[in-house]
Design a protein that fits this description.
Length: 408
């Protein structure tokens, strides 16, 4: 095998891959353009004033998942806030979640004056470890908020059982895991908890630039989330506001693009899975490298690798071979961000992380979740993935993995 490019050898690849930031890496077509023009020609861009696209989007999302209710919002973070607000925690109530997530997951908790409590994760998937979640439960726990990381379903059946035993809600953050399943024949993620939350942001499987969706089987919860997205204004009853809520409405322009994109979703996931199966066949048993084991269950938002150690050297070596790679995904676990570590919440109050309303003063420090910290610092490498890769693109990724594993 030739010398590694990072050490002066020739790289495996010199041309760029398709990405979600260029047309070659997206699935936009004539249908999206026609939908946008229909909205513009109709002059009503605000979905609360009428138009068919919001209802189309919500019905398509509910139908894809076999649930009765879908609620649209302005972003994935907004969708998570709808779900947390929907269960209506008291200030200082606790929501157990993961330290490996976008900060939007945590912002939704803090914005509703609840306290994020961080459980540790599985060392090979980065998803929540049910045993660690159970150890975090307290009399103040109101919910478990699970994130299906990188496209892999978290152990949601076990977490649902744990939530039921504890008498708390389960909320699913599915932003990275459209149509992922925990087992063959099982329902897709987003259908196991009180609510499942999805994002339509630029980097997701399908996109409208931004936007969010919540799924639920609970009609009352759906109604509360729908109200929360519209300042708790029951428009069919009069102009008054039932409780404190925000404006998270999705526009008709967003809904039009998202409705068409969502119809493309099953094919997007199918193509990502086919390409991932090709990669696993070529590089799925490399020594010292753990890849997801089931191409058909994973949604393949990105390609996560767990290596024995030295993730920054791995990322540098793969990138030099022409395969972009990122060590650790996050800079740190979210509990080390200043918003939490320095309690930068509401003014200088530290609310709701101080007592009262919390049961104690919450302090987040390094060492809180050692498995998550090791993934970021030493073992996790993330590669982009895209449904518009060719077989040759995947073969180049596999060749680079083999080459870097062998060390040149």
């Amino acid at each position: 095998m030739s010398r590694l490019a990072v050490d002066g050898g020739a790289p495996v690849r010199t041309r760029p891959f398709p990405t979600v930031l260029d047309p070659a890496g997206r699935t936009f077509g004539a249908e999206e353009r026609a939908a946008v023009l229909e909205v513009l020609d109709g002059a009503v861009l605000n979905s609360s004033a009428g138009g068919p696209w919001l209802g189309d989007l919500e019905a398509t999302m509910a139908g894809l998942h076999g649930v009765p209710h879908a609620v649209a919002s302005s972003s994935g973070t907004a969708a998570l806030h709808l779900a947390v607000a929907g269960i209506d925690p008291e200030p200082g109530d606790e929501i157990v979640t993961t330290p490996l997530t976008d900060f939007g997951t945590i912002a939704a908790i803090l914005a509703q004056n609840a306290v994020p409590v961080f459980a540790d994760v599985d060392p090979l998937t980065g998803n929540l470890d049910p045993a660690s979640v159970e150890a975090c439960l307290s009399p103040r726990t109101r919910a478990i908020l699970v994130v299906h990381l990188f496209g892999a379903a978290a152990p949601v059946v076990e977490l649902r059982a744990l939530a039921d035993r504890a008498g708390v809600a389960l909320i699913e953050d599915c932003a990275q895991a459209y149509l992922a399943r925990p087992a063959p024949g099982a329902p897709p993620v987003g259908t196991y908890g009180a609510a499942g939350c999805f994002s339509l942001q630029q980097y997701k499987h399908v996109t409208a630039g931004d936007g969010g969706l919540c799924l639920t089987g609970d009609a009352a919860l759906a109604e509360r989330m729908r109200l929360f997205a519209d300042k708790a204004w029951p428009r069919d009853q009069g102009r008054f506001h039932q409780f404190l809520a925000l404006n998270y409405r999705m526009t008709n322009l967003t809904a039009a693009v998202a409705a068409v994109q969502l119809r493309r979703l099953p094919d997007v996931v199918r193509r990502r899975r086919r390409l991932a199966a090709r990669l696993l066949a070529a590089a799925g048993d490399l020594p010292g490298v753990h890849l997801p084991e089931r191409a058909d269950l994973h949604a393949w938002w990105v390609l996560p690798l767990v290596v024995d150690g030295g993730n920054r050297r791995w990322a540098e070596a793969l990138t030099a071979e022409g395969v972009p790679a990122h060590a650790g995904w996050l800079q740190s676990p979210v509990y080390l961000y200043p918003a939490l570590a320095e309690r930068r919440t509401y003014g200088t109050s530290g609310f709701p992380l101080t007592s009262p309303p919390a049961r104690r003063d919450w302090t987040y420090r390094r060492g809180l979740c050692p498995v998550a910290e090791r993934l970021i610092d030493d073992t996790l490498v993330v590669l982009p993935w895209n449904e518009n890769y060719t077989d040759a693109d995947v073969d180049d990724i596999a060749t680079a993995l083999v080459k870097v594993t062998a060390g040149g």
